[in-house]
Amino acid sequence: MERVLSGRAVVAGAAEGTALVSREPLSLWGGLCPRTGEIIDRRHELSGSYAAGKVLVMPWGRGSSTSSATLLESIRAGVAPAAIINLKVAPILALGSIVSDELYHKAVPIVVLSEKDFFSIKQDDHLNIEPDGTVKVETRP
Amino acid sequence: MSVKLSKRDKEYLDGQHGKAGQIAMRILARMAEVLEAEELMDVSQAHIDGCGLLSDAGLEFAETLVSQGGRVSVPTTLNMGPLDLQNWKHFGVDEEFAAKAIRQGKAYTDMGCIPTWTCAPYQSYLTPRFGQQIAWGESNAICYANSVLGARTNRYGDYIDICAAITGRVPRCGLHLKANRKGQILLRLVDIDPAIMRSNAFYAVLGHLLGTAAEDKIPVIEGLDPEASGDQLKALCAAAASSGAVALFHAVGVTPEANTLEEAFAGNEPERVIDIGLGDLLEARSDLSTAGEGDKLDLVVLGCPHFSFDEFRELAGLIKAQTNKGNKLHSNVRFVVISCQTSYALLQRSELFDVITGFGVEITLDTCVFHTPMVSADTKVIMTNSGKCAYYAPGELGTGVAFGNMAECVQSAVKGRVSREEALWKES
User: Fold this and answer.
1) CB of A87 within 8 Å of any CB in chain B?
2) Which of A20, A72, A101, B193 sits CB 3.0–4.6 Å from A107 for a disulfide?
3) Does the pLDDT of residue A110 top 60, yes or no?
4) Do B350 and B371 fall within a single domain?
């Protein structure tokens, strides 16, 4: 079954991947290893998961202003999330993606969804993100 | 683009002020859209965070800007960098890393940045004044500038900070505007033992709790000691901007936009009121440690954010108290203090220098344990008085961490094991 959600494309782009969902915000610096894509914040519920190629679904970014650098470096290393979905605009994440776009012509699409839509996405849902902010959700049986 | 750009902004965008200026303005204009700002505005100072982390992408970005003619147009200080520029060999940093770090540092100083290399710029040089519009990076410094100084900055992450410094412009939104600086939630300190309130550890613990409790709101603290020192508020800011995204807090009777509770909330009611008692502080304090009492200690790290002269003085007093009893630094423990050239210059002019280095303390400057590879792989347990360092150590350094105040860090360094005074923090 496919559902179609309509969000705001904070950084426009197309991507697809499996949802990696957290209800807790994550600081990418100290939270994401930019060489491997592992979630390394040992206090975070996703600790030990790999974000590379996944669609990272979390309410917003938190903590260090170095997080944009972590995202940029992970994009350069090819281990960044395929896309990020937030509940509120996370400027530091958008920044990492935009700088990557300007420097390497490669961005991680970022979409902000309404609360109802955001919380409707479940772990391991397959997500298809379109440049206009549309998110197609396929729940695995 | 829906953002209204000035004539000069458009000149930047068209490349009339060079290619670096064009890249900088493109990033600023796109971020203005993200932030739904209507226009850009002037800033008169910048602090760069993007010079801190050494990454291939970060180095490429800085060298691209400098080679394309990038020069800062407002006074711009630098956060700590990835290298102790004088002593990196002593700290076992390899040559390849050092060479890249030196290149990155040079790119920023070639763009005209002031080589302050500190994460506590507000204690170092070019302190912003009340109401000044600035573009600052480094989460603890952002929190301090907004909350304690009353200057106005949003959270400028890597690498919009240098874009703002080059163009002197930022999106006009967020904490730059008075209307967005009102308190939203109230945290009341209830029945906290004054002895706890006086301890330095209290500020890091409260900060850790504040970051978690505030979520994305501007918190107002009621009950904080009006005599709180700059170093104590620094500890609070660093912890709050690590466990949470706090870029601004008010403390009634302490910070300049909160002379009264009414002023802090601009006459509005708090959205939420949270009472903080001893139990909450105990929980936050224990959350800051992954290592336990009596664990074998490998490394003590003080100076996150960078040590001030006053903190050196406090440390020297604690060391003297130990050495007077004939105690020495335990042979298995390394003791590192992180600081900046400004504080170090003062230290060198005082008799404290010999007390501290004589005890075996290693002082590293211009950098930080998280950004330079100086913590050896066999380091299992570190101890720190910093909420920020305690928060990030397990993930970034892969070590266990014990949080304690400065006296407990010194005491543990003598014993070679984590040793804290629990009596103060017991529930009565």
Assistant:
1) no
2) A101
3) yes
4) yes
Residue in chain A lying closest to B240 (CA): A63
CA A137 from centroid of its chain's CA atoms: 15
Of B252, B287, B322, the domain-final residue: B287
Q: How many residues does chain A have?
A: 141
Cβ–Cβ gap A103/B391 under 8 Å: no
3-state secondary structure at position A32: strand
pLDDT of B148? 98
Q: Is B326 found in the same domain as B261?
A: no
Which domains, from first to last, does chain A contain? 2-138 (3.50.30.10)
Domain count, chain B: 3
The reply to whether A94 touches chain B by the CB within 8 Å rule is yes
In this structure, are residues B143 and B249 in contact, taking their beta carbons and an 8 Å threshold? Answer: yes
Residue B294 burial (CB count, 10 A): 12
User: Is B293 inside any structural domain?
Assistant: no
Which member of A6, A27, A47, A64 is catalytic? A64
Question: Mind giving me the DSSP string for A40-51?
Answer: --TTSTTTT-B-
ipTM over 0.90: yes
B259-271 as b/e, with b when 16 or more CB fall inside 10 Å? eebebbbeeeebe
| Residue B186 falls inside a structural domain | yes
pLDDT at residue A24 greater than cutoff 80: yes
Cβ atoms B124, B100 nearer than 8 A:
no
Residues B16 and B153 both lie in one domain: yes
Length reported for chain B: 428
- Tokens encoding B209: 């709790």
For residues A43 and B394, the answer to whether their CB atoms sit within 8 Å is: yes
Q: How far apart are the first and last CA of chain B?
A: 61
pLDDT tens by residue, B16-32: 999 999 999 999 999 99
Flag whether B35 is in a domain. yes
Q: What is d(CA B69, CA B204) in angstroms, rounded to the nearest whole number? A: 42
The H or E element containing residue A39 is: none
Give phi and psi for B122, each to the nearest 5.
-70, -15
- Domain with B409 in it: 299-419
Which two structure tokens, joined as six digits, stand for B329? 């630094």
Helices B230-243 + B387-396 axis angle, to 10: 40
Q: Is the pLDDT of residue B428 over 70?
A: no
Yes or no: say if B169 and B191 are a contact pair by the CB < 8 Å rule: no
Q: Give the 3-state secondary structure of residue B184.
A: coil
Pick the residue from chain A with its C-alpha nearest to B141. A65
Angstroms from A107 CA to nearest CA on chain B: 13
Angle between the A91-104 and A67-76 helix axes, to the nearest 10 degrees? 40
Strand partners, B219: B185
Mean per-residue pLDDT over chain A, rounded: 94
B90, B376 Cβ separation under 8 angstroms: no
Written as six digits, the tokens of B50 are 């993007």
Which one of A99, A100, A103 makes the best mutation probe of the B interface by having the most chain B beta carbons within 10 Å?
A: A99
Q: In the structure encoding, which two tokens stand for residue B27, read together?
A: 């990033």
| Side-chain-facing half-sphere of B382: CA atoms under 13 Å | 31
